[in-house]
Amino acid sequence: MESSISQSQALKSLISYHKPHYHQIMKQRLVQRSSPKLRKTAIQCIYRADSKNFTGGIGLNRTDWQSSCAILASNVVSQQPETEKTSNSEITAVNGHQTLDLAPIVDQNLPKPLSLGPDLSAPPMHGNQLRVAYQGVPGAYSEAAAGKAYPKCEAIPCDQFEVAFQAVELWIADRAVLPVENSLGGSIHRNYDLLLRHRLHIVGEVQLPVHHCLLVLPGVRKEYLNRVISHPQALSQCELTLTKLGLNVAREAVDDTAGAAEFIAANNLRDTAAIASARAADLYGLQILADGIQDDLGNVTRFVMLAREPIIPRTDRPFKTSIVFAHDKGTSVLFKVLSAFAFRNISLTKIESRPHRNCPIRCVDDANVGTAKHFEYMFYIDFEASMAEVRAQNALAEVQEFTSFLRVLGSYPMDMTPWTPRNGDE
Ligand SMILES: O=C(O)C(=O)C[C@]1(C(=O)O)C=C[C@@H](O)C=C1
């Protein structure tokens, strides 16, 4: 890959990008994942950055961060010659992180046997605990979704969805959790685009009941407020209730719900309320001014879990399959695709179209010759069948005939847990 920055600059950028408070683990992973020469640079950078509290030294922006990830990703699986290996003690001595364990680096380079573990997907690569990257800070609903999908996981906060994807691609995390749809707000479109841009596989889904609270600093009353801040989805999920509460004040969108709560606490804002979870209130020392402010009591967000490798589809429990396809000619393709499922009695649970004119996709023909193609729209479909079922395989074979581009995003167990209202929700 062509790039104007070197691998050691890439490391510097990555390390300084991560805030020390939430990203200690990520920094350690970067050290572990890089080659011995780069590792030395990483250690020096972490040491310098930690001691300067990340304010000085290495300037960087998102573009640097993106290129850094790409460069380091290409370095991730490279083999290390025996003679070049750096000892644990050297790292611990310079960096001061006693828990740094380099043993998994060696393991990660070896092929792993396929496994049918409890979640039917590949086991964690960093010891026993699965690391799950999510967008937001602790107390975000995405963190709760990670906990629901993988109860004993270590949830890793990331400040952008893009970072959560890259954390998995760089082997810093084992899974990423991504909200894709809400029962009130509808599809989270940007995340569909991300699924297409990255090469991760959907390995599971969870439906999370979302119970919003209005959070303020202790002692603040409704009359003091002139602003409500939250994630745009959360703001839209509570719009009617806020109006009913007489809060006709400014709404401001921020990156995540818990981040809004943290912002109020950190800046001692007595004129601002956040829409976030009760857990966020606990974590950031805020008071719940109103509880259950979502416009509908059955407010549920659907999250998908992403991994580097797909899982083995099965037929002994209900599975869902997600696909994306496009066609460059003709208008009847959607009708034909839908009929391929209808004829086989396969139910669709989702259909979504996204404009895609400006972004070409590389398609390969039978001879593996690739051409860039522009498609007007990409279509996303979820259907209720496993890729292990013959009817699903036949339906997809037919879809492939009608379309110029088809990708299976994943075939994964459906979340069948019935929704139980919280006390007082009825
Ligand atoms: O901000 C959060 O807490 C999130 O986890 C994100 C998110 C979303 O993107 O929809 C998740 C669930 C809720 O629907 C509101 C916000």
Describe the protein's architecture and organization.
It holds the Pfam family PDT. Residues 131-308 form the Prephenate dehydratase domain. Its main location: plastid. GO terms for molecular function: arogenate dehydratase activity; prephenate dehydratase activity. With 426 residues, this protein is an alpha+beta fold. It folds into three domains: 1-125, no CATH class; 213-293, D-Maltodextrin-Binding Protein, domain 2, CATH 3.40.190; 310-413, Alpha-Beta Plaits (2-Layer Sandwich). Helices cover 34% and strands 23% of the residues. Strands 1, 2, 3, 4, 5 and 11 form a six-stranded mixed beta sheet that branches. A hairpin with a 5-residue loop joins strand 14 and strand 15. Helix 1 (7-17) runs parallel beside helix 3 (36-51), helix 1 crosses helix 4 and helix 2 runs antiparallel to helix 3. The termini are far apart. The model is unreliable at 1-5, 13-23 and 42-120 (pLDDT under 50). Prephenic acid binds at residues 136, 140-142, 179, 182, 188, 210, 231, 233-234, 256-258, 301.
Number of helices: 15
Give the tally of β-strands. Answer: 17
Q: Residue ranges: pLDDT <50 for 5 or more in a row?
A: 1-5, 13-23, 42-120
Ligands and ions found: prephenic acid
**Nearest-integer average pLDDT:** 76
How would the global form be characterised? elongated
Please state the CA-atom Rg, rounded to the nearest Å.
23 Å
Structural class: alpha+beta
Structurally, the number of domains stands at 3
**Percent of residues in helices:** 25-40%
Largest sheet: 6 strands, mixed
